[in-house]
Each structure stands twice: as structure tokens, then as C-alpha cells.
Amino acid sequence: MSEKRPPLTTADGNPIGMQQALTAGPRGPVLMQDVQLLEQMQHFNRERIPERVVHAKGTGAHGTFTATQDITRFTKARFLADIGKKTDMFIRFSTVAGERGAADAERDVRGFAMKFYTEDGNWDMVGNNTPVFFIRDPYKFANFIHTQKRDPKTNMRDMDMQWDFWSLSPESLHQVTILFSDRGIPATLRNMNGYGSHTYSMVNAEGERVWCKFHFKTDQGIRCLTDEESAKLIGEDRESHQRDLYNAIETGDYPSWTMYIQVMTQDEAATFAWNPFDLTKVWPHGDYPLYEVGRFELSRNPDNYHAEVEQSSFSPSALVPGIGPSPDKMLQARLMSYSDAHRYRVGSNYHQIPINRPKSPVANYQRDGVMATANDYSKMTANYWPNSRDGQPDEAPQAKEPPMDLGQAIADRYDSTTDHDDYTQVGNLYRLFDDAHRDRLATRIAGVLGQARETVQVRQLGHFARADEDYGRRVAEKLGLDLNKIMESAGS
Ligand code: NDP
């Protein structure tokens, strides 16, 4: 016997008798009272929500995180407290620069955004597949993204604009080198690492704070595409990464990643060779080893892409007791800008839709706004505090962060471009590459840098050469420029 099917209804739940336009006679016209048709057309006009300005093209999946090691000496985060403890999570991978219809296999940084539905609310880890970023001062962020998008006059992406900005922002060199290295185009989303990139803090049950960085290493191994492979793939399949992930999960080949942290004490931070809160720098593994924390596995595809992936809203401000921010300026700005973007893009109550809704109770004094449900405050009888009414939530003193000593800080607008060592770590990375890799890196860079004005090329070559002379020389040769002359005229 066939299963009883639900009745077809309007959005108000009114049964629909027949799916045809209501017309005056078989040839029309259509009647104003055809509320079924009006509802369908009006909803259709509103099917798209604003596209994300960055990370517009994304792919998501549900999974489970399992704690595998005891790190309670560093953090009191309850979802990490017991070995074997499981927490539901959702991930959204993305490219950064392309629009929603862009091809997957482009050379670009990948977003690696995770939402862990813990008993203390959501922990969002909004990372990338690279351990560093292009800039360290949030004042540059909107400017930087403009260079990655379309020129306002030509409406085309513009290599001169990109390299002009990068060559005037030497702090970008580390990320630029990773982007143009062999790891610049992941073969699949399953074959790349994720990084929290920022420095965060952890606080243990005794109220002691350490700084930490998060790493998510792929258990499938790193695999990347060459430029030739990616060009061929894009020609055949613009959704290659989405298709690969979707099909892997659908066929039970569940991908997983192992989560690690690096830890730095506050004393170590005071003497670290770089600013430990500088997003353009890593912490060398030799000095700050990786501690395993857990593992997550992706095992379920979304049922509805729009509801779950497009409307999923991640923000670094979603932090659970035991994990907190650091002074990292970029992180501080992101704490505001991500949730602000979602309030614009999805609505002021974006937290209340199922994909974003915490699986633990929510209770506060925020009310109203577009699409508010009463779920968060049905038992509360006041929308103000302090109050003496029934049903009010209790504060959780154990969640309060310990005080943070900012020393004798002088508030000022500090220049983020000068007086930093933006070259040593880039040189260290370059020297990890074998000869053939260095050559591929230089060829790729010259291919795009060559489209910029010569003054921009020359300025950028100086940065490569400062990281490693061989780096500068190789790119210069491929551009047909003489590095010696350039360095002489720069007075180096
Ligand atoms: P290590 O030799 O201990 O680590 C080198 C790291 O580089 C490994 O994590 C490796 O990843 C990663 N790596 C290798 N090739 C690439 C690539 N093309 N793009 C991005 N990462 C790559 O050295 P250090 O910790 O002293 O770091 C040396 C340099 O390595 C740094 O200056 C930085 O540029 C880079 N790096 C460092 C990381 C860190 O957290 N310390 C993280 C990632 C890069 P894997 O182990 O997966 O092969």
C-alpha cells in the first residue's frame, strides 16, 4: 500500500485544490483572487538573498566531532572535556573571490567555516585552508577585497589592481606565496587542511589563560591540482569540488580531519620573535608543537542547499566558555563584521533558523526584528533587566572570562606595513620547496604579475628577493627583468 501523502497547501497551510491559474474563461485573464498563484510568484521574486560579498560559492555538510585527547589543562570548554565525547557540527567550504556561480577549481584561498553545536551554545571556527592571511590591519580589509573583485569601471578582475595592492602591502607576501605554491588549488575539499589562522585564547577551570592556534589536518592527505589540470577540470565541471564532496558523503566515503592546537603561554608571547597576534605569521612547529584535540567526520549532506548552506551564518564571535579572542586586530574586527553581515544578508534573527540555531537553550533580552520566533523567550515575562518578574535566566559566573592585562597600552593608529619582518617566514617556506616547485611558483607568479604595470612588477620583485634572493631572481627571469639592476636602483 502506498504511503499516505501530505496535502498540498499554501504557505498558510490552506489546502490547494488544483494547480492551475484561476482565470475568467480558458483564455484568461487571470483573476486577482488567485492567491495561490500570487503567493507562488511573489515568493519566487524573493528566492535569492544577498550574496556574500566574499566566500559566495560554498558547499556544506553535516558531521560529528569527537574529542580524542585530554586538553583540560588548557581549556574548560565542555565539548572538549571528555575523551570520546561527540558534538554535532556543520561545515561550509568556499572559495573567496568568485561569485556564487564561479567555478570550484580556481586558484584561490578556501574558506573552512565550522559550527559546533555544543552544550554551551555554538562555537564557530571560521577558518581558511591557509595558516596566514594577506593583511594584519582590518582597516585594509575592504580595500583588499576590492582588489580581488571586479574593477568598478571595466567590471573585470584586474591583475594590476591585485599586484599594486600586494606590492604596497609586504605583509601579504606570506599568503601570496602559499596561494601561488602547489597548494593553491586543492584537488578536492577533502584533500586540504583547515586553519583557524588567528591566535585565540584558551582558559582552563582555574582561570589560567594561554594563547592558541587551531589546525585541522585532512585525514585524506593533501592533494592539489596543477594549473593545467584545473583549467581542464573547470572546462568540464564548474562544480567539481561540490560534486566530489557530495558524492563521497552520499556513497558513505566519509571524509575526516584531525584537530590540533598550538599553545603559547603569556610569558612566551612576550618574547616571541614575531607579534603572536599577527595574522600574517605562523608559530613554527619546532617551537610550538601540535597537540591533538579530536577528529571530525562529515557524514550527511544537507537536504536543502539554500536553507542549510546558503543561510548558514558563521561568526568568530560565537565562542564558548574556555575559548576566547586574543588581541589580534583582524580577529577583533571580524568579531563584529561577520554577525553584522549576517544580520544584513539573512536577517536580524539569523540565529533563530534551524541551521544556525544553537542546540542548547537560548535566553536573553533581545526581542523583535524581522522573522522573530518566540522560541527564545516564551517563558520570560520581561524584556528588560534588571527586573523582578518570573522566568528570568540566571547568569553563569563560571563563563566569565578572567581579566586580560593589556599593560600600559597607548591607543593610536599604528602603521601596519612598516617595521615588521615580513620576509623570514616567507623565506622559510620557500626553502621548504624543492627546485621544481620553486620553478612552478615563479612561473605562475610571473604569468599574472606580468599583466601589471612594470613599476608594480619591480616593487613586488623587491619583496620576493628580500624573502629569498633566489625567489626574486626566478620571478624576475620569467618576467624578463634584471633583478641585480632593480636591487641596485633600490639601494639594496
Ligand atoms: P615545519 O617544517 O615544521 O612545517 C612546515 C609546514 O608547511 C607544514 O605544516 C606543512 O604542511 C606546510 N606546507 C608545506 N608546503 C606548503 C605549502 N605549499 N603551503 C602551505 N603550507 C605548506 O616548519 P615551520 O613550522 O618552521 O614553518 C616553516 C614555514 O612553513 C612557515 O614559515 C610557513 O610559511 C609554513 N607553514 C607553517 C605552519 C605552522 O603552523 N608552523 C603551517 C603551514 C605552513 P604539512 O605538514 O601538511 O605538509
What can you tell me about this protein's structure?
The protein is 29% helix and 15% strand. With 492 residues, it is of the alpha+beta class. Among the domains are: 58-135 and 186-358, Catalase core domain (Catalase HpII,  Chain A, domain 1), CATH 2.40.180.10; 424-491, no CATH class. A hairpin with a 5-residue loop joins strand 6 and strand 7 (209-218). The radius of gyration is 26 Å and the shape is globular. The chain starts with 34 loop residues before the first helix and ends with a helix. Bound molecules: NADPH dihydro-nicotinamide-adenine-dinucleotide phosphate. Residues 131, 178, 181-183, 193, 222, 282-286, 425, 428-429, 432 line the site of NADPH dihydro-nicotinamide-adenine-dinucleotide phosphate.
Task: Please outline the major beta sheet.
Answer: 10 strands, antiparallel
Protein structure class: alpha+beta
List the uncertain runs: none
Query: How large is the count of helical segments?
Result: 14
Give me the CATH architecture of the domain at 58-135 and 186-358, please. Answer: Beta Barrel
Bound molecules: NADPH dihydro-nicotinamide-adenine-dinucleotide phosphate
First-residue to last-residue Cα separation: 84 Å
Portion in strands:
15-25%
Measured as a percent range, the helix fraction is 25-40%
- The CATH homologous superfamily of the domain at 58-135 and 186-358 is termed Catalase core domain
Mean pLDDT: 95
Integer-rounded radius of gyration: 26 Å
CATH class of the domain at 58-135 and 186-358: Mainly Beta
Q: Count the strands? A: 10
H and E string:
HEEEEHHHEEEHHEHEHEHHHHHH
